């Protein structure tokens, strides 16, 4: 790493978002920027939604003589001076070359690689704010789990970002519980990155041949709903190291965070959505006390339906081995069915004989479960396609949620 | 089910073996024999290695006036009168049409379907005892998990049984903890069954075209070591329902025990062996406190190496989707890495800072772990082939066991 040739310019990195997963990823990226000085600028920007925080008297950072400890302070100031996001990732020291920036526009300015890591309800608004204010040849990586499913089709968050900003955006997803990654406990993740070839010789199967001018490539992309979009991509100037699989690995791979870079953006993104639905069923079955055999059976059927869903709705643009071989597939499914919040809340809902909404309320502090939302969205989509029966587990989860099926009925229903 | 046509004869079933898994399977088979009277004889034989047992005063079967409660009794007598194997599967009522038979030869006499379910060290001796004393056109199903690996090659237990007895034998394996199956907790299992076509029109890829006489088919089978064996199979008389996937499903499928019948005997058998090696690594990682991400990463790499092992050594005779789609593959791996004994002992060995042999001694009552044996056997085989480096997780497990690698080294070693 670090010996990618003598380029005159270096990549500037910005992380957009600073929740617990945002900070964990920013920590990794900043560590790698510092240790690969031939490729990356040392200073990494992180956009932080500014808010007031207070360093408590029991904190390791408390110092009665410090101005930072005199009442409420800006979160960015605390991060930049104490190198810790005391609100969203307390206890973890962030690298000193990571700069918290309260200005979104200033944070992304001049950056060639933008890492998006924020709750998905904020994606569109955030992208609209920086549209036209980023380098036209920037590249993105979306760390936002899942996909956006509605009756009409399935949209990848990476595509939404790319379309608004007019850039190419890949995806990162995997068996990653943020707190464990932040503590540098060993884990793996998948990055999917497959931009159109700027020499336009080998178009991907989901794109029509592109036409290129000196530094502009235009390509057509057809999403799962059949919607065609035209994207104009600007080539990266040749004095930067090319943003390829090797550079992305240099940016995200750590001794405790092992990266495999693949080309299947849809597969990597889809796994992160569907596994939450499967995790609900696994939680119910576990809550029933049906044991490890039954839970493993649910996960097997879930994996099978993930593969089938990919084959059916993405065809040749997806590699079904992503689900069975990559961290974003089977490993993320396993983690989510072990201790993820969808699994836990579903299990509690059986044990306490409460609705899952009730458990959400008492356990999640007002946050909503991703799995229940996705189950409804996926069901609306399948229903519209007339394909509910072909995905019995995904359908069963929806029906249990809406109350038309009981957990006891799942085994016989998914058997067919 | 049950409407397979008006055959004049019915299949007689014998279960060879009566441990906890033997009895759980015998219970299923006897339930199905009773509910499919058009296909199966109602009475199912189970061979029981005779021993003396005593009904304790606290037992629900204790009746001071019963002769069965006067001191030590034959296990078979207790099973036949109380319908419970009080020694190996206590608390579970066995069907009244299941007959415990202390005579191996008498138990298998006239049976058309033999279900083998006994510890693998007894397979050869048991088969030798009944060789020539079974119906020449009988068919077998081996419920013995795993495969027999040595330096020379990999042998399936089903093939060993078939070769000694001169019959065709398939395999059953899956995510099945015996005690949970016995309690009728829902689970799934895989049966693999792919006998040569008796009309010899469509030989399987691992067999040369067979020559058939009126009721005899001779086929050649080449195992993974390249060893060629000739088997003469006698056709089932046409007044029996053919032993096919539908009949096997009728015999093993229950509302609480869902069966998928496939043709990949090698895949179904291999999964049951290799997952135990992976479970050791998962146990170590869990014992280290590395969290769910790390455990999922180990399982992902394990699944990948299972697929690769199958592809490499079984080529076209194996279906790699067996590992990623069937209960005998990914689901059994998940169950084994959740609470299986290999997982538990490996985890304890880290937590107690003891060797795994020491944990075996204190936890398993003199029994040996399957995973440690298989890890050594697989490593001998890989070493002989010069392929240790291509299977880094399987190799790492062996090296940790022999003391030349530490658990801390596993992540970086398997990364390559």
TrEMBL record, chains A, B:
Question: Which Gene Ontology cellular component terms are annotated?
Answer: cytosol; nucleus
Q: Name one GO molecular function term.
A: NAD binding
Q: Where is the Glycerol-3-phosphate dehydrogenase NAD-dependent N-terminal domain positioned along the sequence?
A: 12-196
Q: Name one GO biological process term.
A: glycerol-3-phosphate catabolic process
Q: Which UniProt keywords apply?
A: NAD, Oxidoreductase
> Where is the region Disordered?
194-214
Which amino acid positions bind substrate, per UniProt?
Answer: 145, 341-342
Q: Which SUPFAM superfamilies match?
A: 6-phosphogluconate dehydrogenase C-terminal domain-like, NAD(P)-binding Rossmann-fold domains
Q: What class of enzyme is it?
A: oxidoreductase
Enzyme Commission number: 1.1.1.8
Q: Does the keyword NAD apply?
A: yes
Domain Glycerol-3-phosphate dehydrogenase NAD-dependent C-terminal positions: 264-410
Return the Polar residues bias intervals: 203-214
Query: Quick one: which residues bind NAD(+)?
Result: 17-22, 49, 122, 178, 341, 368, 370
Catalytic reaction equation(s): sn-glycerol 3-phosphate + NAD(+) = dihydroxyacetone phosphate + NADH + H(+)
| Pfam families given in the database record | NAD_Gly3P_dh_C, NAD_Gly3P_dh_N
Give the annotated active site: 275
Family indicated by similarity? Belongs to the NAD-dependent glycerol-3-phosphate dehydrogenase family.
The name under which this protein is listed is: Glycerol-3-phosphate dehydrogenase [NAD(+)]
């Amino acid at each position: 790493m670090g010996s990618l040739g003598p380029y005159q310019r270096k990549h500037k990195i910005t992380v957009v978002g600073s929740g617990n997963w945002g900070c964990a990823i920013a920590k990794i990226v900043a560590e790698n920027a510092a240790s690969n000085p031939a490729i990356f600028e040392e200073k990494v920007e992180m956009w932080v939604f500014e808010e007031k925080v207070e360093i408590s008297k029991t904190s390791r950072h408390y110092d009665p003589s410090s101005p930072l400890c005199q009442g409420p302070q800006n979160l960015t100031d605390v991060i930049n001076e104490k190198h810790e996001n005391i609100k969203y990732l307390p206890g973890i020291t962030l690298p000193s070359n990571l700069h918290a920036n309260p200005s979104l526009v200033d944070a992304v300015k001049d950056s060639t690689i933008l890492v998006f890591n924020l709750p998905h309800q904020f994606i569109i608004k955030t992208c609209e704010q920086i549209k036209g204010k980023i380098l036209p040849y920037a590249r993105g990586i979306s760390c936002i789990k899942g996909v956006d499913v509605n009756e009409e089709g399935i949209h990848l968050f990476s595509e939404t970002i790319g379309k608004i900003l007019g850039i190419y955006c890949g995806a990162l997803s995997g068996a990653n519980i943020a707190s464990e990654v932040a503590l540098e406990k060993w884990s793996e993740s998948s990055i999917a990155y497959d931009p159109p070839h700027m020499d336009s010789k080998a178009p991907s199967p989901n794109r029509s041949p592109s036409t290129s001018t000196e530094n502009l490539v235009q390509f057509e992309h057809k999403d799962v709903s059949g919607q065609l979009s035209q994207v104009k991509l600007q080539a990266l100037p040749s004095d930067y190291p090319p943003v390829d699989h090797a550079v992305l690995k240099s940016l995200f791979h750590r001794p405790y965070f092992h990266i495999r870079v693949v080309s299947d953006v849809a597969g990597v993104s889809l796994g992160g959505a569907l596994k939450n639905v499967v995790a609900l069923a696994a939680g119910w079955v576990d809550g029933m006390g049906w044991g490890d055999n039954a839970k493993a059976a649910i996960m097997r059927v879930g994996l099978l339906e993930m593969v089938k869903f990919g084959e059916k709705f993405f065809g040749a643009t997806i590699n079904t081995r992503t689900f069975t071989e990559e961290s974003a597939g089977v490993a993320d499914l396993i983690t989510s069915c072990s201790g993820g919040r969808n699994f836990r809340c579903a299990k509690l809902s059986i044990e306490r004989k409460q609705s899952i909404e009730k458990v959400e309320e008492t356990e999640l502090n007002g946050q909503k479960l991703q799995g229940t939302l996705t189950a409804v969205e996926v069901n609306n989509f399948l229903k519209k396609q007339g394909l509910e029966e072909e995905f019995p587990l995904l359908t069963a989860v929806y029906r249990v949620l809406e109350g038309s099926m009981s957990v006891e009925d799942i085994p016989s229903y998914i058997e067919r």
